[in-house]
Amino acid sequence: CETCSKEEAKYRCPRCMKYSCSLLCVKKHKLALSCNGVRDKTAFVSINEFTDLNLLSDYRFLEDVGRTADAATRLCTMHSPATKRLLYCLRNKARGCNIELKTLPVGFTKRRENSTTFNSMENKFYWHLKLVFPHCHAEYTLKGVPDDKTLTDILKPYIDPVESDPVVCQRLKIYTASPQSDVQILMKIENRNRNSVRYNKLDASRSLLDNLKGKVIIEYPTLFVVLKTLKNDMVILGQDGSEPTENTGSESSSLSSMEEGEIRDSS
């Protein structure tokens, strides 16, 4: 024992590596050396003494740092009064446009992704928007899309044979090679049972805001671009002969049943 020098040592301090024989000596050495007894995870270890245990210790230390940083971000940013006021403002402005905007709890992927803002000076939404092209298994995310932009203009950089990006055009060639009259833009109707998924058909000649009016949106709009000539399992409301074309929104919401970070198309 390096404290009393009388008894055989039984313990070794993780912090200063001093040997002790009993609890009393442990307390004495902590008091004398101002040692807290906690192992220094960042202590220098020479390459000759570096072992697999040191590597595992470093890995766990980095994991702890990541968790701590993530927890601090959620507490300071996601739960701050400013963030809550922003979400309340977005929902309130959307309600004024006859849009039911719903936000997910903290931690969901769509909540973290959403970059939708409202410009009070212009009295205009700038939407976070996702475009899905199911026939090519392609998805694109757009940020800052003004609500007065027509769907046709939104899709031009993707499926227009002249204005689209060459790389995107090649990936979506099945769309660019088809007549514009065959292109349909659909949006999933929220607040429905999973075994009764339906889609609203949107008007490409109208603005994004006009198409979103009367709809329920969870975080941000997701538009599905499909071709009428190709068979797909997306049922448009009113075309199955069993339901009216209007989205009454009478179904109860079941946000708690959604998987974290995504709202999957059951088709």
Description of the structure:
The chain has eight helices and ten strands. With 267 residues, the protein is of the alpha+beta class. It has two domains: 11-76, no CATH class; 87-227, Phosphatidylinositol 3-kinase Catalytic Subunit, Chain A, domain 1 (Ubiquitin-like (UB roll), Roll), CATH 3.10.20.90. The strands form three sheets. Strands 4, 5, 6, 7, 8 and 10 form a six-stranded mixed sheet that branches. A two-stranded antiparallel ribbon has the order 1-2. It has a two-stranded parallel sheet with strand order 3-9. The model is unreliable at 245-267 (pLDDT under 50). Belongs to the BCD1 family.
**CATH architecture annotation of the largest domain:** Roll
Helical content (DSSP H or I, runs of 4+): 25-40%
CATH topology tier name of the largest domain? Ubiquitin-like (UB roll)
Count, helices: 8
Structural class: alpha+beta
Low-confidence stretches: 245-267
GO molecular function, one term: zinc ion binding
Keywords: Isopeptide bond, Metal-binding, Phosphoprotein, Ribosome biogenesis, Ubl conjugation, Zinc, Zinc-finger
Pfam families: BCD1, zf-HIT
InterPro entries: BCD1 (IPR051639), BCD1_alpha/beta (IPR057721), Znf_HIT (IPR007529)
